Amino acid sequence: MKPQETAGAPARPLRADVRRNRENLLAAAREIFAAHGAEASLESVAERAGVGIGTLYRHFPTRQDLLESLLTDGYDQLGLRAHELLDSPSPGGALVTWLEAFISQVTPFRGMAASVMVTLRDERSELFHSCHAMRSAGQTLFARALQDGAVPSGTEFLDVLRLAGAIAMATEGEPEVTARLLDLAVRGVIPGSAARSLTRPPH
């Protein structure tokens, strides 16, 4: 529970200067981490934001808190993007556009994806709830594409999301490779071929 919250009462809104410092710190962290990875100096983040290191720690007591806040913001943006894409005349294209956004948000810099996996399993965390809201919005896009025939019947949304996440983690810092692998996944390695069960050895 955050200091300004009490049980059963809504959180008090942040003062304008406090909110501005937080936004500046998040913007600075995105720039610094994108250039130097998730283990970059927090002092350099504070300096880029124009505040002291003490101010950074008041907002984000640990590096993990800062990373989780960055990813929470990213998930919130993905949820909004999914809702925007619901009006697209091409359900399949809208889903691919959203998956591209998903990959860019979960791996904006080296070390981001791996750093938050534990928190994503914690149902009490803000990140957990933001993630599930994002998934719900993405699943609506997926259902629309499935109904339109743009996605093969029997495909599971979470499998598509896992595939996108695997591509993201395998290609951190290599956007051109990311784009190629996502395109390969969308088109299929052997279009039209019959799927062979992995539980049976080949004859």
Descriptive overview:
The chain is mainly α. The protein has two domains: 14-61, Homeodomain-like (Arc Repressor Mutant, subunit A, Orthogonal Bundle); 63-187, Orthogonal Bundle (Tetracycline Repressor, domain 2). 66% of the residues lie in helices and 0% in strands. It contains ten helices and no strands. The longest helix is centred in the middle third of the chain and has 23 residues, at 63-85. The radius of gyration is 20 Å and the shape is elongated. It starts with 15 loop residues before the first helix and ends in a 16-residue tail after the last helix.
Helix content: 55-70%
Please write the CATH class name of the largest domain.
Mainly Alpha
Strand residue content: under 5%
Number of distinct beta strands: 0
**First-last Cα distance:** 59 Å
Low-confidence stretches: 1-10, 192-203
Overall outline: elongated
The CATH superfamily of the largest domain is identified as Tetracycline Repressor, domain 2
**Element string (H = helix, E = strand):** HHHHHHHHHH
Our count of domains comes out at 2
Protein structure class: mainly alpha
Sheet with the most strands?
Answer: none
Summed over residues and divided by their number, the pLDDT gives a mean of 81
